[in-house]
Amino acid sequence: MSMNHSKNYLVVSRIYVAVAMFLSVLVAMFEPTSVSFLSIQQTQAPPFLMYSALLLCGVAMADVIVNDFAPDKYKFGWALNYRHLVYMGLAVLSFSLSVGIIAIFGNSLFLCRLWLDGTVATVVAFLDILGRRGYSGSKIYIQPN
Amino acid sequence: MVLLWPVAVATATTIAATVDPFVGITTLHILVMLIISTLSGLTALTIRIDSELKKQGLEKLPRPRLFVSSHMLGCWLAGVLAVALSQLNNFTIWSQITLVIAASFTGAKFVEKISEIYIGKVTGVPPKPAEEPTPEGAGK
Predict the structure, then answer these.
(1) Which residue among A44, A99, A129 places its CB closest to the CB of B97?
(2) Mean pLDDT of the region B66-83
(3) Which residues of B77-113 are buried (b: 16+ CB within 10 A; e: fewer)?
(4) Which ipTM value was assigned to this complex?
(5) Residue range B52-63: average pLDDT?
(6) Is the dihedral of CA A47, A49, A51, A53 positive or negative?
(7) What does the alpha-carbon distance between residue A21 and residue A95 come to, in Å, rounded to a whole number?
(8) Which of A49, A85, A95 lies nearest to residue B32, judging by beta carbons?
(9) pTM of the model
(10) Could you tell me if residue A144 is inside a domain?
(11) Which residues between 70 and 129 in chain B have a beta carbon less than 8 angstroms from any beta carbon of chain A?
(12) What is the pLDDT of residues A101-132, one digit of tens each?
């Protein structure tokens, strides 16, 4: 697997996690028939936590759009430097959403999707931090800004 | 770091003997809280990896096993205690999650600092002797 292919897989994984978590939080906040909305409503999640989660997902989306798709003259430096924290935050968020569902509904197949998102976000965070900082054990090397 | 565990186990045993803190919650719930605790510890680990790799010319992590073990032991220890404490105090789900995240992250950073201070003193590599200045023109 060449270095460029590895880098492309990492970008695709990042896009997947950002979009999936953004949609999950949107559904949990604004779709009244969804399992996650009902669990959040019944566990009385504080609104500021949900809006913080939405903000975190927005940062991840902006990172993908600006740093991966926009021309090189546009940079979202903060999100690039702290990308590992953003994606670890997304991982914690996805597992936290699943706790609410477990507390209300017990088991649900929807949990598998949340856990998958959380696992991919964790892997992305570690691969990104090792690749971005030029760790010699990593096959992915991303030019530091 | 290792010495913290017998104290924690003894405390947990005492608490469990008097009041069962995990009554009323499922195994799946405890498992996911443990995963959240692990993720908080991994977050602390990524911060440390970031700061280590930022150092100029450093391409390999020094003592990676010590890094990982200190973070994980610290976060699990603090996470288990946080879950027990929040169950005993009847915290809501979201308060419990917030407490576990904060406690695990703090526990990982705390044990990391302690282990760095202690093990750095015990196994610290002595500094290299300064190179003697060579006379000008030597070796030409």
Answers:
(1) A99
(2) 86
(3) bbbbbbbbbbbeeebebbebbbbbbebbbbbbbbbbe
(4) 0.85
(5) 68
(6) negative
(7) 11
(8) A95
(9) 0.81
(10) no
(11) 92-94, 97-98, 101
(12) 998 888 888 899 999 999 999 999 988 888 77
Residues of B in contact with A125 (CB under 8 A): 42, 46
Establish if A142 belongs to a structural domain: no
Domain that holds residue A29: 3-132
In a domain, A112, yes or no: yes
CA distance A89 to chain B (A): 8
Q: Is residue A138 part of a domain?
A: no
d(CA A86, CA A63) in angstroms, rounded, equals 10
pLDDT single digits (tens) B16-34? 666 666 666 788 888 999 9
Query: Per the structure, how many domains does chain A have?
Result: 1
In single-letter form, the type of residue at position B10 comes to A
Distance from CA of A71 to the nearest CA of B (A): 26
Residue-range domain boundaries for chain B: 4-13+25-52+63-122
Compute the nearest-CA separation of A74 from chain B (Å): 23
A88: chain B residues, CB-CB within 8 Å: 39, 42-43, 46
